[in-house]
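Morning. Coffee machine broken again, so started the prediction first thing and wrote up yesterday's gels while waiting. Chain of 203 residues, entered below exactly as on the submission form.
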Amino acid sequence: MIEKGAVLPMFYLPPIEYFVKLNIYKPDILIEKEEHFPKQTYRNRADIYSPDGKLSLVVPVIKGSKNHTKIKDVKISYDFSWQRLHWMSLQACYRRSAYFEYYEDDLAPFYEKRYNYLFDYNEQLLQFILKAIKMPLALNYTGTYEHEYASLADFRAVISPKKESGFEQKSYFQVFEERSGFMKNLSIADLLFNQGPQTINYL
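Came back before lunch.
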């Protein structure tokens, strides 16, 4: 059991703040696996920078997954081709970025292969990103649900699209910055495609 460190949720293409926390608290990180699935969080959505401003990519989950289903048991819905939509959106938003092509071939399979469970999908994506940004980190998971932790920094409800983040962030070049200015705390994808190998230094 980790005595110091942090507990974080499992997000879809998490925001930059998430990776700053990983970098600060590593290797003493616990990923929450036993919580009930909360709606309208980054667990199944990511924000990217589109020509029209912020665009939220949402991974649809099977109806009924919402009420008192453990996060590890939530299944992805394929009622419409969301993978194609997400991949086309990422291409449209980042084709002009400096490093999109560098990661494209490794990322594409996540939008071709079908995954049953949201947690597994997010976990595989997280492993890919950690490798891409060269942040070696062994992921450890909660074995039971704890309402609160006495000795761990708890970020399960802190990093949320519904809350204005107090996260202080220095700017970096973004593709559509001249249109809407610098947007903070977007998905790690935005930082990765714009900064490439410099991402870890930025974090």
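The CA atoms of residues 171 and 182 lie 7 Å apart. Going to sketch it on the whiteboard this afternoon.
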